[in-house]
Amino acid sequence: MTSSSLDPVLLKKKLLYLASSGSFTNFTPQQLHDAYEELQDFLIVHHDKLLDSIELFNLYELQFYLSVLTLHDIEAKNALDRITDQFSIIKTDKELRSQRIAILQSIYAELQGDLKHASKLLSEDPDELKLSRRLTTLSRHDAGDSSKYINNLIYYLNLQPSDVQTWNELGEQYKILGHYDKAIYCLKEIVLQDPQAYPIFYKMGLLYYYLFLQLETNLKTEKKDKLFELMKVLINARDNYLYSLEINDTYKKNWVGLKALAELGFNDKLKKISESSKEIKEYLSSNDKLKVIIDKKIKELNIEI
């Protein structure tokens, strides 16, 4: 059943869940586009029929975020104007008329390059947790001072350890700096809360691969114990790709990642010492078996390498 054929009530539940869970932040570009189109159509037909005021606010807010993420700047401004016009006068819900609206306004100001105005919108009530989160995000613009941004993210996570988006941001910062082990730790915190987040398992596989490349580059010796340690990093990369595929076996990036692991020149180094290690033999054997499956799936999914 396609989304367009869903009963309107079921579709409303689906969209409200998307708004409340924030799962759209891990969507692929195509998934974001589909969600954007789906929400646009739903709001045109049902905005005054199936939704109470709180539900309407949540979906307008979702519309704003999806518009931003799909680069529909005009639609993002229209969604923000609707929220401001219809909800800023609400007296019974302080969060709706202040905190969340201020966050949206600051995001739009940031998109327009007006960082000063974006910060001013948030600093009017710095004790609010969500506003503090946005102030933390804005600190990433401090030129040449990534350490300040990282420290702000860590400080916020001490207050709100369940914020998966912040863990994702912190992991991204560590990745940029080449601290792949720390980035992996951040992503592990995400999958503890969302064990079905297959894009995150893919990212962990990729980070383990980057970590392997980093360690191999710095390797000063080819002693068996050092090669064995590198092999374990590759096993972690492989296992995360495979776990992601258990959840979604058509996620193409995993197959590309697995092919890269299976064809590494490093495997030739392992072959030279494989007779002295059962675990190395098993790793190389599983690689050979995976190659057949990988090549078949890449052809089946028409993946360009």
TrEMBL record:
Q: Where is the EMC2 TPR-like domain?
A: 122-200
Compartment(s) where it occurs, according to its Swiss-Prot or TrEMBL record = Endoplasmic reticulum membrane
Using the UniProt record, give the first listed, main subcellular location: endoplasmic reticulum
Bilayer topology reads: Peripheral membrane protein
This chain is encoded by the gene named oca3
Is Oxidoreductase tagged as a keyword? no
Q: What does this protein do?
A: Part of the endoplasmic reticulum membrane protein complex (EMC) that enables the energy-independent insertion into endoplasmic reticulum membranes of newly synthesized membrane proteins.
| InterPro entries xrefs | EMC2-like, TPR-like_helical_dom_sf, TPR_EMC2, TPR_rpt
* Organism name: Candida viswanathii
* Family to which this protein belongs: Belongs to the EMC2 family.
Q: What is this protein called?
A: ER membrane protein complex subunit 2
Instruction: Return the GO cellular component terms, semicolon-separated.
Output: EMC complex
Subunit structure and binding partners: Component of the ER membrane protein complex (EMC).
SUPFAM superfamilies listed in its UniProt record: TPR-like
Q: Where are the TPR repeats?
A: 164-197
- For this UniProt record, give its keywords in alphabetical order, as a comma-separated list: Endoplasmic reticulum, Membrane, Repeat, TPR repeat
